[in-house]
Specification:
This protein is mainly beta. It has one helix at 111-117; strands spanning 15-17, 20-24, 33-39, 43-44, 55-62, 65-69, 72-76, 81-84, 90-94, 100-107. It contains 1 helix and 10 strands; from the N terminus they run ββββββββββα. The strands form 2 sheets. A 6-stranded antiparallel beta sheet has the order 1-2-3-10-5-8, covered by helices on one side. Strands 4-9-6-7 form a 4-stranded antiparallel beta sheet, with no helix packed on it.
Length: 129
């Protein structure tokens, strides 16, 4: 059931699943999930994947991420926004020396539930090379 009142999440008190802190969950709204993702230096993100029916967007707050979208690499520093439409293969990695923090929005909601069930792409793996 969706809440019919405002949701307020104090700093650091979101629902954590690994390195993902959900601030807006599917239980709060069916329209989107909003999360803060922290990725340690020299870590790979999820395996390359595509979402059939949802937008996946990222806003980099700190550090520098390398996104692979449709086999093109894009280096994204603080202030960079990346929107990946449904069906577009993508992944990301922190190849730098600093921690990366980013905002992630999935629309519609449902990503949090997949991550909790373990059916979302695995993330935060050590580099393979």
């Amino acid at each position: 059931m969706v809440n019919q009142r405002a949701i307020v999440v104090p700093p650091g008190e979101g629902h954590r699943v690994g390195n993902v802190e959900f601030l807006a969950r599917s239980a709060d709204t069916p329209r989107f999930n909003l999360a803060l993702i922290t990725l340690q230096p020299h870590r790979e993100g999820p395996e390359q994947h595509a979402h059939a029916a949802e937008d996946d967007s990222f806003y980099v707050l700190e550090g520098e991420l390398t996104f692979t979208v449709d086999d093109d690499e894009v280096v994204a520093g603080p202030g960079t926004f990346v929107l990946v439409p449904p069906g577009v293969p993508h992944t990301f990695a922190n190849r730098g020396e600093a921690v990366v923090r980013m905002v992630n929005i999935h629309a519609p909601a449902g990503f949090d539930r997949r991550l909790e069930r373990g059916t979302a792409p695995p993330s935060s793996k050590p580099p393979t090379s």
